[in-house]
Amino acid sequence: MAVVTYRDALTQALREELQRDDRVFLMGEEVAQYNGAYKVSKGLLDEFGPMRIVDTPITELGFAGVGVGAAMVGLRPIVEFMTWNFALLAIDEVVNAAAKMLYMSGGQYKMPMVFRGPNGSALQLSAQHSQAWESWYAHIPGLKVCTPGTPADAKGLLKSAIRDDNPVVFLEGEMLYNTKGEVPDGEHIVPIGVAELKREGDHCSVITHGKMVLVAMKVADDLAKEGINIDVVDLRTVRPIDVEAIARSVQKTNRAVVLEEGWEICGMGSQVVDFIQRECFDDLDAPVLRVHQEDVPMPYAKNLERAAKPDAGKAIAAIKKVMYLD
Amino acid sequence: MSTDAKRAPAQKRSDKGSPGNNGADASPQNDLAATTPEVRRELLRSMLLQRRFEERCAEAYALGKIGGFCHLYIGQEAISTGVMSMIRPDDYVITAYRDHGQALARGVSPRAVMAELFGRDTGSSGGKGGSMHIFDAKTNFLGGHGIVGGHVPVAAGVGFAIKYRRGNQVCVCFFGEAAVNIGAFHEALNLASLWELPVVFIIENNRYGMGTAISRSTANEDVLVRAKGYRMEGESVDGQDVFAVRECMARAVERARKEKRPTLIEMKTYRFMGHSMSDAASGTYRTKDELEENMKRDPILLLHNRMFEAGELTEGEMHKIDDEAKAIAQDAWDFADASPEPPLEKLYTDVYADTSS
Q: Do residues A94 and A39 both lie within one domain?
């Protein structure tokens, strides 16, 4: 098993699927000549040429719509948004067109396409460039939403997303591109909709996804030194969501903290807590707590930004609280 | 930007196959003289079917058999009929929400359209789409879209796919004049011209975006300047004259098929009904006089008169064609009315495809 970066794992997935199926193409701003704003498409123009690795103008609504049209008539577009913050300009094509086409047409027009790009905050990019969008897209029937937190999941899920006949919103962690991890050699597929228990413990469940998986793993390491062992349930996909995996863990630990990068109100955690109260009502020994971004636009100043973000310290405090240790 | 990037999806290619069409020769010389009486009769038949079908839709709406938003095409039939008569069965059509007439002109089953409007299981989308979302994969009729301008980039995407596959089809995209102010339209035109995509963009200029006159919505009422802005060929044509529509389409289709270049066409028309079933034909935002003046240029009447004057249509024949159109509309109504509602278990089907490649 090779150790590769999250970025290279994504590039591998793109390259393998472009080789596998000539209906697959990648389009977006700076994906070709520039090799990708985050270098995820590095080298692909040379290998696959300008018909399949397509630079677009800065016109998110326009090229997202081009992807929809191409998918309607049988191509398999991968539409890259330079960041998901810019995808708001294209949300009509994602939500009103791609997500609903199969239903509105009574099953006649499938949408085999992927919208992908970096999601969540980086460092000091302030309000308009630091947002986690998964709860927005997870709200929409017709979409699938992937939030890989590790290189192996990034590769395996992207390959599944490209092969899926439905529109998949693929949210990459902007701060994850340089992180490294083991990726299985050869064909590596991760099914959409299946969570993974990334760490096993009996004391509390931490349910998370995306970039926060790394935070949860650090929390697990830190707490282990204190003799507290937690389950880390990595959802990996937030639509569909693996309710059984959540329930299995909470029924074992009887306590849960939901950790996410986005805001509190109508966040992914709201939905996870709803599933827990329905599936695990009699199993709970404490109220479920949530850790998330503070309810403010992301500030620029280092200290304020740090205070606004969810982190290991906040997660540990929440875990201790549900364990009545604080 | 370098030439390579600019031309990315627009590589040189050689056309294969020959341009056939639905009963008409797609040459620039196509005009009244070049068509045959049989073709002209087909055009009349198509336009009358739309008119009679839409009249029955209005009736069904009043009776509560059709619900939701319902936008009728009456007055604009020369456009749908003229355009569809100039393209091939393997070409693509995409449109906005005033879509019944275009679907019929394209050859979508009147029964399937009416059943869709009635919300029945036998409808074109199994009753899940309704008036604004007529889709028909058999005739490459790509919908029926409800967000003004939203489908214009989708048309560019269809053009992109044609180019990607080195095909020689064209994609025809209809929208109203109010859509020329929305961002999606501009982004799509820029991409279609930049990448040289085989798309014919058709503005059906009926002069009102819902209840707002073009003079109240559009800084430059000459909507064709938008073609120039994107280095695209543009033409303006009398949309009430089916022959003018056909001539103009012949040039645009040729340009798309042979040269892989898009065209923006303004087709000047007028809707004889309200924007939807919820507003009066006149009295609020346009006067009765204006409506009546425009109804003198009824596209069906204009075609009828020219055929009548040419001595190729008798009043008796006209009545016969009209009766046939009425019978088809009645048959569609009867079929829809007798069709079952979609079974409740279909509520959850077609949300996701259960397949992968």
A: yes
